[in-house]
Design a protein that fits this description.
Elements: H1 2-23, E1 41-44, E2 52-59, H2 68-82, E3 88-91, E4 98-104
Parallel strand pairs: 1-3
Antiparallel strand pairs: 2-4, 3-4
Length: 105
Amino acid sequence: MKTKILTLTFTVIAMIAFTISFTHSNPTERTGRMRQTDGMYMFYQCDPVDDYTYLGTLKTTVSWSGKPEELFGDMKKKAKKKYPTADAIIIKTDALDEYDVVQFK
């Protein structure tokens, strides 16, 4: 009888621990960590998980030498110039001609 109670107790504890481990995981199974470059985060065809304040939308002319760093660097500089408190840019289209500027809460 004591063995059954002990086994049941361990089973319940294991199930609770298993459930807690999943409730404290990332918001989705495919969440990644963003790298900050030039003092800003860049989200391309994705949205930040954390809450943020929308600051504005900027447009850009897509003319670059073929290195993405050049285009993305220009986008970040323009965003920081117009919105000094900006934390990130969100590029939602493949055209790369428009992007949102946001600040995390």
